[in-house]
Design goal:
Blueprint: E1 3-4, E2 10-11, H1 15-26, H2 28-43, H3 47-69, H4 78-86, H5 88-123, H6 134-150, H7 154-185, H8 210-221, H9 237-267, H10 271-279, H11 283-291, H12 294-330, H13 346-367, H14 372-404, H15 416-433, H16 444-462, H17 464-476
Antiparallel strand pairs: 1-2
C-alpha cells in the first residue's frame, strides 16, 4: 500500500515516473524543433556551440541539485532546498523565482503547441488557409487541456508524457541519422555536406555572443530539476530523485548537441541555409520532409506539438507544487488545499493557469505580437533569466550545506564543480543584461525578469513575520531533515 506525505500528497511514483516529469518539462522533441531558432538569430550557424556550453553549465549545476536531493525531498524544490540551507527569506525568493520560470514556461509550451499544431493541421490538409489567430486558438485550447490533465493523479500523467515523448524522440533520432547518412554520402538535398564550421563562431560575431544564444540552450535543458518537485510523491525520493536529475541532464546534453549539429548542417551553413533554419515551422519536421519524405515530417511535427502540450502540463504541475508548498508553509489554507479525490493542489493549479493566461494576453496587447513565436521567445528568455538566478541560489545553498555545514559531505576538491557552475551562470546573466538592450521588445526581457525577482525580495522584506513563520515550518518539515 502506498504511503502518503503530510497534507495529502501520495507517495506513489517510481523512478521512471519521476523521470517522466523532468523529461516532459524538458520536452526534448519540442525543444529540438524550435529552441535552436532563437540561438540562430544571434549566432547564426554556430548553434551547437551554444548548446554544448549550456550542457556543460547544466552538468555543473546538476551536482548541487543531486547532492541536495540526496538529503532533502520537498514539493517546493529550490524553495525547500534554499530555505533549508540558506534561510527562509532566501528560500522564498528562490521559490518565487522558480515559480515565475515555470509560469512563463507554461506560456512557452502552449505557444509552441499552437505553432506546431497549426503547422500539422495545414500539412495534413485538415485546416489550410488558416487565419492569423489559428495558432493562438490552439494555444488556448492547450492551456485549458493542460489544466484538466494537471489536476488528475500525477502517476497517470507522467506515464502518458514519458510514452509520447519517447516515441517522438525516437522519430527525431531516426531522422537525424538518416540526414547524417545523406550528408556523409553526398546525396543530401541542395548538395549539403558535413560542415564542421557549425562549431565555429561566424566572422563578425563576438565570442561572448555565444552566451546570449546559450539562453535558448538553458531553456532546452530547463526542467531537468523538475523531478525534485515530486520529492513528496516519489516512493524512494532520496535514491530516485538524484538519479532522475542526473540521468535527464546527461541524456539532454548528448541529445541536444547531436540534434542541433545535424540541423545546422542539414539546412546548410551559408546565408540561405541559416535563413531557412530561422524561418522553419518545425526544424526536424522540415528536415524529415526534405531528406526522407513528407510523411515523417508531418509525424514529427505532430509529435512536437504533443510534446509541447506535455511540457505545458509538466510546467503547470511543477508550478502548482511549488505554490502549494509555499502556501502550506505560509499558512495559506486555500493554496495548501488538495483535492480529496486526486490528492492534487487544485487551487494552486488554478492560480498558475490564471497567471499564464494574463501573461499571454498582456504580452499580445502591449507588444501587439502578431506571431505566437514572439510570445514564445519573450516568455522563454524571461523565464530562463529568472531560472538561472534560482539555479545560482540553489548552488550557493548546496556549497554551504555540503562543505561548510557540519562535517563535509563530499571530498573537498569537489567544491570546484559547483563554483564553475556559478561562474557559467553569472557570466550568462551578465552577458544578457550588459550592454542593456536600448530598443525594441528585447528591453522587456531583463526588465520583466528583474521586476519579478524584486517583487519576491520586497515581499520578504516587507513581511518579516511571514518569513519567520515560513522558517519555522521549514525547520519542522520532516522532508527537509537531512538525517531522515
Amino acid at each position: 500500500m502506498h504511503g502518503e506525505s503530510k497534507n495529502g500528497l501520495r507517495k506513489n511514483l517510481n523512478i521512471w515516473e519521476t523521470i517522466g516529469i523532468s523529461v516532459a518539462l524538458m520536452a526534448p522533441s519540442m525543444a529540438a524543433n524550435i529552441n535552436p531558432q532563437g540561438t540562430a538569430g544571434l549566432i547564426g550557424r554556430a548553434v551547437p556551440i551554444a548548446f554544448a556550453m549550456a550542457f556543460v553549465g547544466v552538468l555543473l549545476l546538476a551536482y548541487g541539485f543531486v547532492r541536495l536531493s540526496q538529503n532533502f525531498n520537498h514539493a517546493g524544490s529550490v524553495y525547500g532546498f534554499v530555505g533549508a540551507t540558506m534561510g527562509p527569506r532566501q528560500g522564498v525568493v528562490a521559490g518565487w523565482g522558480l515559480l515565475g520560470t515555470y509560469t512563463f514556461y507554461t506560456c512557452v509550451s502552449v505557444m509552441a503547441t499552437g505553432i506546431f499544431g497549426a503547422k500539422f493541421l495545414d500539412a495534413a490538409g485538415i485546416w489550410r488557409n488558416q487565419p492569423s489567430w489559428a495558432a493562438f486558438l490552439i494555444a488556448l485550447i492547450a492551456l485549458i487541456g493542460g489544466y484538466i490533465l494537471a489536476v488528475v493523479p500525477a502517476k497517470n500523467g507522467t506515464r502518458i508524457l514519458l510514452t509520447v515523448e519517447g516515441v517522438t524522440v525516437a522519430l527525431i533520432l531516426i531522422t537525424a541519422f538518416a540526414v547524417l547518412a545523406k550528408l556523409i554520402s553526398g546525396t543530401a538535398p541542395g548538395g549539403q555536406k558535413i560542415d564542421w564550421s557549425v562549431f565555429s563562431v561566424p566572422e563578425g560575431t563576438g565570442a561572448s555572443t555565444v552566451f546570449l544564444g546559450a539562453v535558448f540552450g538553458f531553456l532546452s535543458f530547463a526542467g531537468f530539476e523538475a523531478s525534485a518537485t515530486l520529492g513528496e510523491e516519489a516512493s524512494n525520493p532520496r535514491r530516485d530523485i538524484p538519479r532522475a536529475l542526473l540521468g535527464t541532464a546527461i541524456f539532454g546534453g548528448i541529445y541536444f548537441v547531436f540534434v542541433t549539429t545535424i540541423e545546422a548542417m542539414g539546412f546548410g551553413t551559408n546565408e540561405a541555409g541559416v535563413k531557412a533554419f530561422q524561418t522553419s515551422g518545425s526544424l526536424m519536421g522540415d528536415l524529415g520532409s526534405s531528406y526522407i519524405g513528407s510523411w515523417i515530417g508531418t509525424l514529427i511535427t505532430l509529435g512536437a506539438s504533443i510534446s509541447a502540450f506535455g511540457c505545458g502540463i509538466a510546467c503547470i504541475v511543477g508550478a502548482s507544487r511549488l505554490l502549494f508548498a509555499m502556501g502550506r508553509d505560509s499558512g495559506n489554507a486555500s493554496l495548501a488545499k488538495v483535492s480529496a479525490k486526486n490528492a492534487t493542489p487544485v487551487q494552486a493549479t488554478n492560480s498558475v493557469i490564471i497567471a499564464a493566461l494574463v501573461i499571454m494576453v498582456v504580452w499580445k496587447l502591449i507588444f501587439r505580437s502578431q506571431q505566437p513565436f514572439d510570445i514564445f521567445v519573450g516568455s522563454g528568455t524571461i523565464g530562463t533569466l529568472i531560472l538561472l538566478v534560482a539555479y545560482g541560489m540553489a548552488t550557493v545553498g548546496a556549497i554551504k550545506f555540503i562543505f561548510f555545514t557540519g562535517a563535509p559531505k563530499a571530498k573537498s576538491w569537489e567544491i570546484i564543480i559547483p563554483i564553475l557552475g556559478l561562474i557559467v551562470v553569472a557570466y550568462t546573466l551578465y552577458r544578457n543584461v550588459i550592454p542593456f538592450p536600448t530598443s525594441g521588445v528585447a528591453r522587456a526581457y531583463p526588465i520583466t525578469a528583474i521586476v519579478w525577482l524584486v517583487i519576491g525580495i520586497v515581499g520578504v522584506l516587507a513581511r518579516p513575520a511571514l518569513a519567520s513563520k515560513i522558517g519555522s515550518q521549514l525547520t519542522k518539515d520532516e522532508n527537509l531533515s537531512p538525517n531522515r
